[in-house]
Specification:
heterodimer, A: 260 residues, alpha/beta, Glutaconate Coenzyme A-transferase, 10-stranded mixed sheet, two-stranded antiparallel sheet, B: 2 domains, 9-stranded mixed sheet, 3-stranded antiparallel sheet, 12 helices, globular
Chain lengths: 260, 316
């Protein structure tokens, strides 16, 4: 069955959410990915959005931002940032969080702040919002982005959202809670995990039709590949049906219809 | 105006003229929801200068203030157009110093919210496990060491980040309803607004609707700021357009996307500012210019909650 790289990205990211989990949902790709999970294989998950919403029902339409008012109609609690970033995330009650990123480095550090020097950047980006908190405190963090070599630098120029910092035990040494940190990077080429000792990104799965060489050529460091590299099962017909018909029938993310 | 006044209603022009001074530290409420666009337009029209703007998530309302040259410093967790697209005036100021350079103090959203919380409660600091290992510790702006500090917890020796309080001269928020005394009620996505607003010395409350005091007295759980903290009440329907207010109107996505397209160039930004801010006298004229049909299309269908019963509890 035919599918686009956008559909592949959303479905693969959505599969990182398991039924019954407490999920912290970042903006952009995490929106369709988490709504897809909620409607496909993880109907019992709870979706939490930084602005104050706890949702145990799927939204009535595709949210376009993480603070979309349509989400209030599927919320069982509408509070403030201390109910979500505080009582859920800081308290250690978030099983998995999803974040979009403009770039991610060898140790899973995310830079959404600037290109070039912080004080006088060549390109200034958005900054953190709650992303830094999410990357610091969620038990598992899934980073979602379209693959492009420029988005995979050896070292983040600014750490907006800490991953494993310099690798090894540096994340714990910085004081971040143990048992937290990036668990997966999902891209249009494959899925990466992190080595349990060095904390370096490791290629663990590739999408059908992608060669390991393609991935190696699209990161800016010598990439480690898992001994148990697997081919990721392509989206099923049912997954594609749910995504296209139930999650995003207006093509807001699938066809960029939100740009009008 | 004394904080005990029975009637604090005034126009946006009067409220901004009276309570926002050049050089003030200004907290702007909202979190995509309930952004005070009408108030921001009036601040620009009155040519306020050297403001320190502080807000949880900056979008195009902050971009406008920066591009209009009103801002010297920005305290925030984020600055972007929700389309998503860059906030180009913000980028021009940071990358090129146009129309003027601005200083930025950045936090994570939780870190910033905790700083507001500490400011609202007059706490000396709050201890947290967020921001450790991040660029927010390494790169400090004008707050320097008073922004945050990493220490070993006196309880268990673990590293913790202490975040100092943020307080503001004046706070402005757009809420669904208020009474004329200044009790402000808000529902939907609350973001960090409650604590941001309560960390301010003076508060201008902009409301979609000014309601009878009895409405507030029958649902006091919904009050996010009480009258004794509020200086001015401005009835300003559609005051968050092109952003949204829960239960009132939706985001105007077309306008938001058009803003991004127009303001990518400096000339386009100036033209936008002239057409939609400087060239109109007040929100009433802005609304007429947007057009009733377009606004009515944004108005939400009703979806009312069941009334709650607080009971009178008047007997002994």
């Amino acid at each position: 069955m035919e599918y686009t790289s956008t559909e592949l990205l959303i479905i693969t990211a959505g599969r990182e959410i398991h039924d019954g989990e407490v999920v912290f949902v970042g903006t952009f790709w995490p929106l369709p990915a988490s709504v897809f999970a909620k409607r496909a294989h993880a109907k019992g998950c709870t979706l939490i959005f930084e602005g104050g919403l706890v949702c145990d029902r799927a939204p009535l339409r595709m949210p376009l931002v993480a603070s979309d008012p349509c989400l209030v109609a599927s919320a069982c609690m509408a509070g403030d940032v201390f109910d979500t970033l505080g009582g859920a995330l800081h308290a250690g009650r978030v099983d998995v969080a999803l974040l979009s990123s403009s770039s991610v480095d060898r140790f899973g550090n995310i830079n959404t702040t600037c290109v070039g020097l912080y004080q006088r950047p060549q390109v200034r980006l958005a900054g953190s919002g709650g992303a830094c908190d999410v990357g610091s405190l969620a038990r598992r963090l899934v980073i979602v982005l379209k693959h492009d070599r420029r988005r995979f630098p050896q070292r983040a120029g600014y750490i907006t959202t800490p991953g494993f910092l310099d690798g090894g035990s540096s994340r714990e040494e910085a004081g971040l809670p143990s048992g937290t940190g990036p668990s997966a990077v999902v891209t249009t080429l494959g899925v990466f995990g992190f080595d349990s000792d060095s904390r370096e990104m490791v290629l663990e799965g590739i999408h059908k039709g992608v060669r390991v060489e393609d991935v190696r050529n699209n990161v800016q460091w010598p990439l480690k590949v898992s001994d148990n590299l697997r081919e990721i099962p392509p989206p099923t017909q049912e997954e594609l049906r749910i995504l296209r018909e139930e999650v995003d029938p207006h093509g807001m993310f699938l066809r960029d219809a939100r740009l009008g | 105006m004394p904080l005990q006044a029975e009637d604090k209603r005034m126009s946006m022009r009067e409220a901004v003229a009276q309570f926002v001074k050049d050089g003030d530290t200004v907290y702007l409420g909202g979190f995509l929801h309930g952004e005070p666009h009408a108030a921001v337009h009036e601040i620009i029209r009155q040519g306020k200068r050297d403001l320190t703007i502080s807000t949880g998530a900056s979008t195009i309302f902050v971009d406008l203030l920066i591009g209009a040259g009103c801002v010297a410093r920005l305290v925030t967790s984020y600055c972007w157009n929700p389309v998503p697209a860059p906030t180009y005036a913000f980028r021009r100021a940071v990358e090129k110093g146009v129309p003027r350079a601005i200083e930025i103090e950045e936090y994570s959203l939780l870190g910033l919210s905790l700083a507001y919380f500490a400011g609202a409660l007059n706490l000396p600091f709050v201890a947290t496990k967020t921001m450790l290992g991040s660029g927010f510790l390494e790169h400090r702006g004008f707050l320097g060491q008073s922004k945050c500090k990493v220490i070993a917890s006196p309880f268990n020796g673990e590293k913790v980040c202490l975040i100092g309080p943020l307080r503001h001269d004046v706070g402005i928020a757009q809420v669904q309803r208020a009474d004329k005394r200044g009790n402000g009620q808000c529902w939907g996505i609350l973001g960090p607004t409650r604590y941001g607003l309560n960390s301010c010395s003076r508060v201008i409350l902009c409301a979609e609707e000014v309601v009878d005091e009895e409405v507030v007295l029958h649902d006091p759980n919904r009050t996010i700021i009480p009258a004794y903290r509020v200086c001015a009440v401005v009835q300003e329907p559609w005051g968050s357009h092109p952003s949204y207010v829960q239960g009132c109107y939706d985001r105007d996505w077309r306008f938001t996307a058009e803003y991004a397209r127009l303001t990518e160039s400096l000339e386009g930004f100036k033209a936008f500012l002239e057409e939609w801010v400087l060239g109109v006298s007040d929100r009433g004229e802005y609304i007429r210019k947007i057009g009733r049909d377009r606004l009515e299309a944004l108005r939400c269908k009703r979806r009312e909650s069941s009334p709650v019963d607080y009971g009178s509890h008047s007997g002994f």
